[in-house]
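Q: I'm writing up a methods section and want to include an example of the input and output format. Could you take the sequence below and give the corresponding predicted C-alpha cells, formatted cleanly so I can copy it straight into the document?
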Amino acid sequence: MARKSNLPLLLVSYLLGPALVRSCSPLPLVINTWPFKNATEAAWRTLASGGSPLDAVESGCALCEKEQCDGTVGFGGSPDEFGETTLDAMIMDGTTMDVGAVGALRRIKSAIGVARKVLEYTTHTLLVGESATKFAESMGFITEDLSTDASRALHSDWLARNCQPNYWRDVIPDASKYCGPYKPKPHSILKQEDPTYKEKDHCGHDTIGMVVIHKTGHTAAGTSTNGIKFKIPGRVGDSPLPGSGAYADDTAGAAAATGDGDVLMRFLPSYQAVEYMRQGEDPTIACRKVILRIQKYFPNFFGAVICANVTGNYGAACNKLPTFTQFSFMVYNSLKNQPTEEKVDCI
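A: Here is the clean output for your methods example:
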C-alpha cells in the first residue's frame, strides 16, 4: 500500500505558522480568572506573534486595565475611604524567578506595565505608594487622575451611608454606625472574628490573575486589580505579593488566586498550588487542596485558585458560599479554536 504524503500538512504548517496549527499538545496555554475573554485573546495574540510568556501576561492584564474589567481592574473603580482609586499588580518570570510588583500605586493607569519595569530595571521586587508613582514617572509613565464619575458616585454614596460598610473593628466611634477618624478602644483586645465589612456581592470580581505557559514549557504569571471598595488607605491585598496573587516556576507550573486578599495572602495559595503540582498532584487536585487548607480556618472566605502544570494540564477550585457556587475562568490553548469560558463547582 502506498504511503500517504505529508506534503499537504507541511504546506499548511509553512503557510499558517506554528501558532495556528493545532497539534496533540495543549501548549501553549493561557488561563485567567473570570470570563475576561478579551484579556485572554490579547495574551494569546502576543504568543502567536512570537512574544514571550511575560509579554503575554503583560498584554492580557493591560487590556483588562484599559477595559476596566468589572470595575475592579484598572482606573475608576473601588475607591478607598478617601475616594481614591489605587492599583496593585505583579508579574513573575517562572524561568528566572524574577518578579516585579507595585502596591497602592497612585495616579498611574498601567499598573502591570509599571510592575514589568520593576522586574526589568531594578533588583527590587515590590514598590509601593507615592514612591512607586515616582518610579513610574521616571520610566516614562504619565500621571493621571484615576477617578471617574462612577467611582466618585460610589464614594459619595458610601459617605452618605455613614461610611457603611467598612473594615474597622474595636475602635471608637463605633465603626458599624459612624465614619471616622477612629481611635482604638481603651484596652481593646482584638477578637478573632470577621471585620465589620461584609461583602454583599460575592460574585464581584476583584482581580485578573493570569497564567501563561509557552510551547517550550516556560511559564509566567501575573495579576492586576484596584483592590476592594472602601478599603483603608494604604491597604495592599494579595495580588502584588509573589506566591499569594500569582506564582510561576518552570520546574512545576504556575498559579493565580482571586478573592478576599486579606485572607488569601495568609496562606500563599499560588505558591502552595505550584508546590502541590511539583509533588505530582493533578492541577485540579492541587487547587482543591489549597482551598480546603484555607477553608479550615476561614470557612466563609471568598476565593478561587487557577493553576496549570508545565505539560499544559490545568485546573481550578473555589470556596462555596450561598451566593458563590461556581467559578468561571478562561482557557485558550493549542487544542481550542478560541478562548473558552469554563466553570468549576465550588467545594
